[in-house]
Predict the structure.
Amino acid sequence: MIATATQPLETLADLMDRIGNVPLNRVRLHPSPGTATVEDVLRLCDREPKYLCELVDGVLVEKVMGTPESRLAARLIHVLQTYLDEHDLGILTGADGPLQILFDQVRFPDVAYIGYGRIPEGADPKAGVPDWIPNIAVEILSPSNTKGEMTRKLDDYFEAGVELVWYVNPPTRTVRVYHSPTDVTTLTDQDELTGEQILPGFRLAIGNWFDRALRIRPNA
């Protein structure tokens, strides 16, 4: 069970449990765990762009993504942007685009769709960490992602108001589609991913997505 933000912290083990027991080599020590802020996320993005760090309960946790995961995300962004070029409903962000989804939580979804209705009038288009809540958040799972980490992230997304979350598992070529932390459907590479009521008419054959994203030769 993941510790909740209302439970008091007494040990480092309590803190690690709360953030999902991520590998310790992904937890930044400066600033001290529990004291980091949104400004620290921005500082790292500006000064150390090789480190993309999410903010989880005052802890900076390095985001991980390998080349296969990046290619899957890039292909998905291409297909989604093609849809949005024909249906001008909102915008996309990628894996290096931080979003402040809760007061003390900054996440970097691998892909996020944000409908125009969720972007306030007069919002600053240059905001480094905008507090825009995605309609759809996508995570391409990496080997070092822990079950606890992804459970906590899922809870944060839905608490913030995200409507749909896609967890993509490259080794199994499956996509878990969440409508809530407990309402989940697993799709295989024989299925289609759809935008449901959020992106009406959007359809993506999962097998073709994996094949096109991960091939390294034209006939591969």
About this structure: The chain has a mean pLDDT of 92. Residues 77 and 111 are 7 Å apart (CA to CA). The chain has two domains: 12-62, 67-214. The first strand starts at residue 53 and ends at 56.
